[in-house]
Amino acid sequence: MTQTEISTNENSNWDDFVSARYLKAEDIKEKTATFVVIGQEKKVWDENERPRLCLSLEHKSLGKVKFDCNVTNANFLAEHFPESPNQVIGANLKFEKVRVFSPHHKKEVDSWRITEVVK
To answer: Looking at beta carbons, which pairs linking 106-110 to residues 24 or more positions away fall under 8 Å?
Structure first.
């Protein structure tokens, strides 16, 4: 691989590695919020589990954030964008704050659920 090829590949920007911020329930006080999807990627956190869809989102006051989709959110997106996860790019999605059981924390926590594709 030449130096030119290395400098022009998709990882030539450090932003995704050093400043990626993941959306948390406490980031927004309101019960609902709308985000624009600006990208998507497959994340593998544990080789024994299925990959997760990770969305790159933009919000008017938060700026750019990442959001790992759980099975419920991934199923919602698959229903509304049946051809490919790439279809979700450019969509406006409404998120609602919900209480869910976290196996990691072993208690109920606030989380975000995708509830609507905003036209």
So the answer is: 109/25, 110/25, 110/26
Any residues with CB less than 8 A from the CB of 10 and at least 6 apart, and which? none
Beta strands at 92-102 and 32-43: parallel, antiparallel or unpaired: antiparallel
Grouping H, G, I as helix, E, B as strand and the rest as coil, residue 18 is helix
Q: Which residue type, as a one-letter code, is found at position 97?
A: K
Domain count, the chain: 1
Domain assignment present for 43: yes
Q: How many residues does the chain have?
A: 119
pLDDT tens per residue across span 67-94: 999 999 999 999 999 999 999 999 999 9
Is pTM beyond 0.85? Reply is no
Residue 36: CATH number of its domain: 2.40.50
Q: Which two tokens stand for residue 115?
A: 């509830």
